[in-house]
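Intended use. Records like the one below are meant for learning the mapping from a protein sequence to its folded structure. Do not use them to infer anything beyond what is encoded.
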Amino acid sequence: SEPSIFFLPMAMRIVDDDDSIVRDRARKTLRNLFARLKTTRKVQRIAQIVKSWIEGEDESLRVTGAHVVAIFARSDMFRASHAKAYIDVMLKWGFHCNANLTVAGFVAIEEFALRDPTVFEQTSLRYLLLTKGPQLLVHENPWVQLTFSRICGLLLALERTNENSIWTMEGLTQRYCWALCKQLTFIDVPEETFHQAAKNLLAIASLLREQIRASNSESSEVTLRWLVTRLATVSRHTSQVHSRQRGLEVLAALFGRFDRDFISRYGEHVIPCVFDVLGRPTDAQQDGLRGIAEAMQDHLVEHLGSTYFAKYQDHRANVREIQLQRKRRRAVEKLTDSEATRLRKERRVTRKREKRKTESANRRRQ
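Structure written out for the chain above:
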C-alpha cells in the first residue's frame, strides 16, 4: 500500500489533536510505518514531503515536520546525510519566536545527535551553541530550557577529550555556568530541568578540573572558582527555599566527586553555606537544607580536619561582628534619622507580606 495514505493523517494528529493519548498513538504508528519501509523510493517520497514542510513558511507545518523528523531519526532508515540536511534547515528558523517550533526543532536535533554525534561538527549547530546557547538556557519557555539543556549535555559528553572544545573558552563557559545556575532558581519548570542543569554543571566542573590537571590552565582555575562561588551564592542568597536546596545539592555532589586537593582549594567558599543552615535556627521548610548541610559538613571535616573548624569559627566570628555593627548603626539611625527607620520598617513589612503570598501559592500548587 502507499505509505503516504497513513503518513499524512498520522503526522497531522501529532500536533493538531488535543488528546495526548491520540498524539502518542500517532507517534507509535509513524514509528511502525518507518520500520516497515523497505524501498528507497518510499523513503524519499516521505522525506520530500517533510522537507517541504520544514522549508516552508507555515509554522504549524514546521512544527509537524520537526516532530516527524525526530521520529524518523529513531528509525532504521536513518542516515547521517539526513541529519545534516534537516538540521541546517531547522537552524535557519532562528529559534527566537515560536516556543512550540523551537521545542520541536530541538527535540529533532537531540535525536539526530544521539544517533550521530558528528552533527555538531558537520552542521551549523556548533555556531548556535557559541552564539545563542546561554540565552536559550534561560528562555521564558521551560521546555525550550530543558530541550536545549539536553543538547548541551550531549555536547559535554562528546567533547571530554576534544582539545578545541567550546568549553575551553573562558568567557563562554562562564556564561553557560551562569545560565545553568540561573535554571536552579526557576520555580515553574519541570523537575527534569533541574536534574539536567545539575548534570551539566557537574560535567563542566569535571572538564575544567581535567584541564587544570593536564595543563595547569589559569583560565580554567578562574572559571571553576567562579562556578563554586556562584553556586554558593545561589545556596545562600536566593529567597526561595527550593532554590537554595538545589544549589546546596549541586555543591554537595561537586565536593563529593573530587579529591582532597579540590576540597582544600574551594572549601572556604562552601563553609558560609553550611553555617547559614547549621549555625542559625531554621523552620520546618528548611529540614531538607539541614540534612544536606550536615552531610557536607561531615565530608569537609573528613578531608580538612581541624582546618574546617578553625575556618567555621572565623566565619561565625565575622558574622557576629557584622551583626553587632548593624545593631549599632540602626540604634544611631533611630535617634538621628527617623525617615530611614520608617522606610526600613516598610520594606520589612513588604518582604513578610510577599513571603506569605509565596508560601500560600506554593501550598496551593502542592
